[in-house]
UniProtKB/TrEMBL annotation:
<dbReference type="GO" id="GO:0106408">
    <property type="term" value="F:diadenylate cyclase activity"/>
</dbReference>
<keyword id="KW-1003">Cell membrane</keyword>
<dbReference type="Pfam" id="PF02457">
    <property type="entry name" value="DAC"/>
</dbReference>
<dbReference type="InterPro" id="IPR034701">
    <property type="entry name" value="CdaA"/>
</dbReference>
<dbReference type="InterPro" id="IPR050338">
    <property type="entry name" value="DisA"/>
</dbReference>
<protein>
    <recommendedName>
        <fullName>Diadenylate cyclase</fullName>
        <ecNumber>2.7.7.85</ecNumber>
    </recommendedName>
</protein>
<comment type="function">
    <text>Catalyzes the condensation of 2 ATP molecules into cyclic di-AMP (c-di-AMP), a second messenger used to regulate differing processes in different bacteria.</text>
</comment>
<feature type="domain" description="DAC">
    <location>
        <begin position="87"/>
        <end position="252"/>
    </location>
</feature>
<dbReference type="InterPro" id="IPR014046">
    <property type="entry name" value="C-di-AMP_synthase"/>
</dbReference>
<dbReference type="GO" id="GO:0006171">
    <property type="term" value="P:cAMP biosynthetic process"/>
</dbReference>
<dbReference type="GO" id="GO:0004016">
    <property type="term" value="F:adenylate cyclase activity"/>
</dbReference>
<dbReference type="GO" id="GO:0005524">
    <property type="term" value="F:ATP binding"/>
</dbReference>
<keyword id="KW-0472">Membrane</keyword>
<comment type="subunit">
    <text>Probably a homodimer.</text>
</comment>
<keyword id="KW-0547">Nucleotide-binding</keyword>
<dbReference type="InterPro" id="IPR045585">
    <property type="entry name" value="CdaA_N"/>
</dbReference>
<dbReference type="InterPro" id="IPR036888">
    <property type="entry name" value="DNA_integrity_DisA_N_sf"/>
</dbReference>
Length: 286
């Protein structure tokens, strides 16, 4: 058979636009799943699963019937175990999916019809309070609400409902005062609650020198779209967390400018990374 006849006998399927769209969607999903696995403790577990699969294939090649029988009986139990093990990561992934603009543009579950945005006076009050507290090594944790309502975390604290001023924030976090322990939640121009409990981040990438306050700031930013400001009690330095990422030791002007910029728009992870990259290009130690 000649080469031309051989090539003409080969079946080459036609690729339609729907096939291309499906390939793009599947590639996008697989890529994001791999990124999610890589950024969580699931990566180490995945490597363990791969080893088990390789061992099962080895048993299949050698026809080790007893091992294959045990493996087949434990598959269903293993799937349930994986769901239990990955429950925190799966919940976080679904929460992050719910924060995507692609979804929230169509579905606005639990979100305000008209966002309560903070004013320029609130920006100045928060920034001033952070750096005044940092100067005297007073620790603070301030969560600024964006689109996602923080009622779940607000209920863990004590209602305040006061206009944001630097004096109010400084008094709340003053040592040995009833409200100093925990976080405050800022909604619009008001401090709605203090002494709020926040979820701690279990990220392995966080600097070991950073304490519980920074882990709480990162934790709330991982599960909500909030802007979280952290004042270190040990160093007096101010950090900001968005989307599970942290800028450490940010200067006063940079923080004020960014909060002013986000007064009428959300600070998302993408803009946060661009901002952090810009600060690094300017030679600032973050």
């Amino acid at each position: 058979m000649s080469l031309e006849k051989y090539l003409s006998s080969l079946y080459i399927p036609r690729i339609s636009w729907s096939d291309i769209i499906e390939i793009i969607i599947i590639a996008f999903v697989i890529y994001n799943v791999l990124v999610w696995i890589k950024n969580t403790k699931a990566w180490a577990l995945l490597k363990g699963i791969i080893i088990v699969v390789v061992f099962a294939l080895f048993a299949y090649v050698l026809n080790l019937k007893t091992i294959l029988w045990i493996a087949s009986k434990t598959i269903s139990v293993g799937i349930i175990a994986l769901v239990i093990i990955f429950q925190p990561e799966l919940r976080r992934a679904l929460e992050q999916l719910g924060r995507k603009r692609l979804v929230t543009s169509f579905i606005n579950f639990g979100e305000r019809a008209k966002n309560e945005r903070f004013s320029s006076d609130t920006v100045n009050a928060i920034v001033r309070a952070c750096y005044e507290m940092g100067a005297v090594y007073t620790g603070a944790l301030i969560v600024i609400e964006q689109d996602m309502i923080l009622d779940e975390y607000e209920r863990t604290g004590i209602e305040v409902d006061g206009i944001v001023t630097s004096q109010l924030l400084i008094n709340i976090f003053e040592h040995n005062t009833p409200l100093h322990d925990g976080a405050v939640i800022v909604r619009g121009d008001r401090v709605v609650a203090a002494t709020c409990y926040l979820p701690l981040s279990d990220s392995t990438n966080i600097n070991k020198a950073l304490g519980t306050r920074h882990r709480a700031g990162l934790g709330i930013s991982e599960v909500t779209d909030s802007i979280t400001l952290i004042v270190s009690e040990e160093t007096g330095k101010v950090s900001v967390a968005v989307g599970g990422e942290l800028i450490h030791d940010i200067d006063e002007d940079s923080l004020r400018n960014k909060l002013e910029y986000t007064r009428n728009r959300n600070m998302d992870v993408k803009s946060f990374r661009l901002w952090r990259g810009r600060l690094r290009n300017e030679g600032k130690d973050i």
